[in-house]
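Raw record, unedited: Lipid II:glycine glycyltransferase
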Amino acid sequence: MKDLFYEQDYGRLYEKIENGTCELFEFNHRLGKVHHLFIKRPIPEPISGATYYDLVTPYGYGGPVITEVEPGDEKKLAQKFEEAFQKYCFEHRIVSEFVRFHPVFSNALDFEECYEIIHRRKTTGTNLSAFEDPVQKEFSKSTRRNIRKALEAGVTFRITVNPESLKNFKEIYYHTMERNKAEAIYYFDDDYFDNCLSLLGENIVFTEVLYEDQIIGMGLSFFYGDRIHTHLSGTLDDFHHLSPAYVLQYALTVWGKENGMSLIHDGGGRTASPDDKLFKFKKQFGKNTEFDYYIGHKIWNKEIYHQLCELTNTTLNDAFFPAYRAKVEVEA
């Protein structure tokens, strides 16, 4: 089971953002194997002079995933993983864990007895392997019309794998974030983009949409194995009538189909609402394709967790997890 989200170089991309270190726990048992990638973050409040830690999935998706198992033994293997990881967490002073499970792999269902599992929202994408013509089958009628009009008007596109620079992309991306009044989490800095190239350059597929030799839209996506994950994109205001965002997705679909990819995963919306504007936009490229996205919580050391909540004047019932980080995260 291969996916970029389970590679350590991908996790390292988010060490600075999460203020932690990317680590890997490989569990091997006679029942099978589990691969678990996470970022370990120091908790600011020491307990009895000792630093404790919590875990979080790197930006995107992940969580523990079964890589080898006999059919029917998934839950037994997950139980053995929990026992081993509980011991690991105690030895490494790990207090709690927040997991973003992978919608495509549905790994949340294998570990639902290990973590407190919460269904967050639906995600969507374009299924490239199920249809000979995914544009015809997955794209909405109005989307196909927008793309056709744009191409007839002279809009073109080009695809680059492993681009040399993201300088132009950053400019158009920041412009788009300002236009959309995006949250601070989406304003990635120069180091982030430099690390994208140095750590994952060979996994980047870069899409550009042009009109009269001017770039009017750009998209940065990751590909690994036979899957593509859209990541960041930007378009120019003045060319909205030429549907650059639609042509970006069309170009990626054409490239993916030609290169033997099975899926473009676009993720979900900003909320769980089926009327979420971002989700409805993405669904225009995946009429037949949806996945369930779950998150997971786990307190690995209840005694220390309680002490941290007392130190930070938070309660176990706080909606934020982990509760002891609630004020820090909100203020940040």
